[in-house]
Amino acid sequence: MSEKTINPRRREFLGASVLVLASAIIGVPALANAVETKINGFTPVYRGAITQNEPGKVNVHPVTYKLHGLDIAANVYTPANYDPQQKYSAIVVAHPNGGVKEQTAGLYAQHLAEQGFVTIAMDAAYQGASGGEPRSVDKPTNRIEDIHGAADFITQYPGVDANRLGLLGICGGGGYSLAAAKTDKRFKAVATLSMFNSGRVRRNGFADSQLNTIQERLRQASAARAQEVAGGKILYSGDADMTDAQIAALPFEMYREGYQYYWRTHAHAGSTFKYTTSSLLDLMRWDATDQIDLIDQPLLMIAGSKADSLYMTEDAFPKATGTTDKELFKIEGATHIQTYWVPEYVNAAMSKLAPFFGRTLVS
Questions:
Q1: Does the global pTM surpass 0.85?
Q2: pLDDT at 51
Q3: I need a surface site. Which of 23, 30, 255, 343 has the fewest CB within 10 A?
Q4: At CA 150, angle to CA 53 and CA 187, rounded to 5?
Q5: Rounded to 10 degrees, what is the CA torsion of 178, 182, 185, 186?
Q6: What pLDDT score does 10 carry?
Q7: Distance in angstroms (rounded) separating the CA atoms of residues 291 and 293
Q8: CATH classification (class only), 8-360
Q9: Are 188 and 164 in contact (CB under 8 A)?
């Protein structure tokens, strides 16, 4: 896969007019799944997103808070008829690799708020609208600390009961949520959706398809870090300016549908697949399943039955031996990316998430 990054003008174009073009080119209903609107800088790209805050309904509140000196951009969703004098359960929602809070993380945060929870979806440090230089650093330590930081913030939010805090991680955010919940017992329950083990994939390749190039890629990452330290150009991996034909030719369903989701139907200016090549020094020695026996909280893992990423959830689930309150739920017929936005599959996920958090986040 080419490491060439997207032209900024093309990124802007993808965020708007390509939504119309995509439905004709690749047969995906584009405009039905996205909205172009703003609430104080909030620009959602998912179906059914809030277009304006109204009394008595679920509202979204863009916020910024500090984490280790960096500005973290987040959206807090409050339930209908929210009263800060009351007490609410809260849920932190961690976004996928390359994603931002205005995509699937926002969709699920909004749906959970519709069920009466206060929720927060935040952009990872160095990514999206959050601060941090260089851009697109993607290190497990940072992503895990993002989750701890969101817990710090939302447990101080008016009306939130700090003793009723849950965690939902989607894709890469799912792997990082497992890691955060191992030690952060403020989280009383943890759920993952289409969990992606970033360390395993960056190390071994998707479906363990690059085992024979691990050492070569580690040397490349080491050289990239040396170049950064010397003041040279920062190298990036992961992003590619691909045509529709090239996307269709990708060997894995998750990547084919992922490019359509992130670059076509749900494109957002803050969203990018790229990450600094030097991040691989941290990613390739990390694994989402390390010591997950430390999770003693209730655990719900959800994945599509047809997802070619399902092997990561199925590998992690039995290793979470520290909790007896756990369930692996497969959404019949769903692929990885389809769990992000297809209403049928989102509803199936919510039919498990809402009662799970309702049962486990009690005083």
A1: yes
A2: 85
A3: 343
A4: 110
A5: -30
A6: 34
A7: 5
A8: alpha beta
A9: yes
Q: Which two tokens stand for residue 91?
A: 């849920």
CA 224/CA 221 separation, integer angstroms: 5
- Per the listing, tokens 């297809």 go with 342
CB atoms inside a 10 Å sphere around CB 83: 11
pLDDT at site 32: 34
Beta bridge mates, 94: 122, 169
Provide the pLDDT for residue 38. 57
Residues comprising the chain, all counted: 363
**SS3 letters for the chain?**
CCCCCCCHHHHHHHCCCHHHHHHHHHCCCCHHHCCCCCECCECCCCCCCCCCCCCCCCEEEEEEEEECCEEEEEEEEECCCCCCCCCEEEEEEECCCCCCCCCHHHHHHHHHHHCCCEEEEECCCCCCCCCCCCCCCCCHHHHHHHHHHHHHHHCCCCCEEEEEEEEEEECHHHHHHHHHHHHCCCEEEEEEECCCCHHHHHHHCHHHCCHHHHHHHHHHHHHHHHHHHCCCCCCEECCCCCCHHHHHCCCCHHHHHHHHHHHHHCCCCCCCCCEEHHHHHHHCCCCCCCCHHHCCCCEEEEEECCCCCHHHHHHHHHHCCCCCCEEEEEECCCCCCHHHHCHHHHHHHHHHHHHHHHHHCCC
Domain ranges of the chain: 8-360
Most distant CA pair in the chain: distance in Å?
Answer: 58
Q: Which residue has the tokens 């359509």?
A: 260
Least confident of 239-243, 257-261, 277-281, 308-312: 239-243
CA dist 125 and 66 (Å) reads 10
